[in-house]
Write a structure and sequence with these properties.
By secondary structure, the chain is mostly helical. The protein is built from ten helices and two strands. Helix 3 (109-143) packs antiparallel against helix 4 (151-170). The radius of gyration is 24 Å and the shape is globular. Mean pLDDT is 76; it is low at 1-29, 244-251 and 348-356. This is Type II GnRH receptor.
Amino acid sequence: MSENMSSLAPPTSTVAPPTLPSTWTPPLSTWETPSFTSAAQFRVGATLVLFVFAACSNLALLASVGRGRRPPSHLRPLMLSLVSADLMMTFVVMPLDAVWNVTVQWHGGDALCKVLCFLKLFAMYASAFILVVISLDRHHVILHPLNSIKAHKRNRQMLLVAWTLSILLAMPQLFIFRAVRMEGADFTQCATHGSFSRRWQETVYNMFHFITLYVVPLLVMSCCYSRILLHIHLQHLREKAGESYLRRSGTDIIPKARMKTLKMTVVIVLSFVVCWTPYYLLGIWYWFQPDMLRVTPEYVHHVLFVFGNLNTCCDPVIYGFYTPSFRADLAACFHQKRRNAARAPPNRARSRDIRN
């Protein structure tokens, strides 16, 4: 997710591999001033397109969920938190990445360097951990439906833990990043140059964030949905065997509304895995084989990062597909704008007649 902001090159340069918050800096004797390449220009253009779509769709989703029509009350704080994390990715990660690619070097000073690097990693942690909370909520609701009355309090507690952990795990960025100025060259970069004295220290730092940001959330979500699928499968077997089983809605093993919500959350989690897995795999490859950067085309790094950011746009689309009320809110908004536009010309015409 996060770019290798530690090298003295910006996210556009082939000197800076597209990894997690990587911290290794290439030898200054071999360092070359980076440039705004054509591959980087494509990345900036694609990022701006995603930014516009993600901002509009997530703000619309935030307004729709905030109105309280859907989803159920205990699930609403989870969706609001997910949208908030997506908006942080939209308004922090995407603009920072685009501007940094255009300017090539860092012009924001030391304090802004630290704060933005912290916010970037914080947004990514929040997005991943909120998905974990949603998975745990679905696991508990499906496997323990009679305890759903406590879901609201339980979800608030898990959300508090998720946001707190996101802050704590991103805080090292405030201490290891700083604005570094090259001696003998008019070039400044936001980097971790000098923060690590050994290569293995950098590898340990990167692997720690890879595990906590991707591996652990993926394992927890996989465990939750695997147990849910196993539970549903066993219930189907009992149904076929003719065993009596307490059901909450007619002849359904799981109420249709609850099953629909389950499908939506599964698709949201899958979009996270599909969008970010290639980028993480490329980062791991670099950590253990840094020379691969010389043989891998630059555009591969940029395309994978843009593809990862696509995940921010997927959540409102998925939510809208499974939630008719969200689509109804969007349709009502468009109809209102069309009605307002239709009334505007006659009003302007009457005003001109009055002036004449």
